[in-house]
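The step that takes the researchers longest sounds almost clerical: writing a folded protein down as plain text. The outcome of that step, for a single protein, is printed below.
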Amino acid sequence: MDDMQKLLAALAEVRDDVDFENEKALIDDGLIDSLDLTQIIAALADTFGVRISAGDIEPENFNSAESMLALVRRSRS
């Protein structure tokens, strides 16, 4: 399973009613809220062993699965 598949599986555990694979404005369009975001950050930590800093909690880092995966990859370095 590649990183994107792991990410999509983790996101589906948080909200199975959101199309994380295709949506590009999850926060901007109000598809996820602050509680969802908190759960997503925890899921990223559990799935990828990364720590998301407070400075990284910006809409552009969570508007799409691609942006979340890029954040994960930056957080690994």
Remarks:
- The domain at 3-76 is CATH 1.10.1200.10 (Non-ribosomal Peptide Synthetase Peptidyl Carrier Protein; Chain A).
- The chain has a mean pLDDT of 96.
- The CA atoms of residues 24 and 32 lie 12 Å apart.
- The chain has one domain: 3-76.
